[in-house]
Design brief:
The longest helix is centred in the last third of the chain and has 27 residues. This protein has two domains: 77 residues, Four Helix Bundle (Hemerythrin (Met), subunit A) (Up-down Bundle); 98 residues. Helices cover 80% and strands 0% of the residues. It is flat and about 50 Å long. By secondary structure, the protein is mainly α. Helix 1 packs across helix 3, helix 5 runs parallel beside helix 8 and helix 7 packs antiparallel against helix 8.
Length: 200
């Protein structure tokens, strides 16, 4: 796992060095990522699922660029990290909210309820627990930053992406199953983080 993280950081550094000549600040890259997500959400809402997904995928790629450029230029800032984190949550919420306007199949209950549950349990709660625990001084900022869990944002995105691919090529039921699985795994992560906070 450590070697994999090192390879990922090395790749991001190469990407950052490659793109650092473009006259855009890291924060501008972040905002471009958010803008693409808004356009992607509009495309999905208007029924253009494939175009919308392509724009969200491009948004995700650019989201990796901002941090890489910041590190390559030596321009990492606390505000940049804050802006990136906020935009990450907004992009994920935009994706899930836009799908509430797309005709998804009914699996046990209205798909809008599943999506709303995932926004709350998956997108909001893990980050909220980390931030609020540190804000109240229940645990140190360092421990809050190191707080992990079974199912974090990257795993959630991979699962939803795989579910969406299965949905496009086989049946959208599979996407709803992926959403349900993400809710369950996110709930476990929420409990894990609460236990960490309780232990101090």
């Amino acid at each position: 796992m450590l070697k994999q993280n090192e390879k990922s950081k090395s790749l991001q550094m190469k990407i950052g060095q490659l793109l650092s000549f473009i006259p855009l600040s890291p924060n501008q890259w972040t905002l471009i990522s958010l803008l693409l997500a808004f356009i992607g959400a509009y495309e999905i809402i208007t029924g253009q699922l494939v175009y919308g997904l392509a724009l969200f995928a491009l948004s995700g790629i650019i989201d990796m660029v901002d941090g890489a450029v910041a590190r390559a230029r030596g321009e990492t800032t606390k505000f940049g990290g804050f802006l990136d984190g906020v935009c990450d949550r907004l992009v994920e919420a935009l994706f899930l909210i836009s799908l509430m306007f797309y005709p998804l199949p009914y699996v046990w209950m209205d798909p809008k309820i599943w999506l709303a549950m995932l926004i709350f349990i998956g997108t909001c709660m893990p980050a909220y627990i980390r931030a609020y625990a540190a804000y109240n001084g229940v645990i140190s900022v360092e421990k809050a930053r190191a707080m992990g869990g079974l199912f974090e944002r990257s795993e959630r995105i991979i699962l939803l992406f795989a579910g969406m691919l299965a949905g496009i090529f086989v049946s959208m039921d599979y996407f709803i199953y992926a959403v349900i699985a993400a809710i369950v795994l996110s709930a476990i992560t929420v409990m894990q983080r609460i236990i960490v906070v309780m232990r101090g």
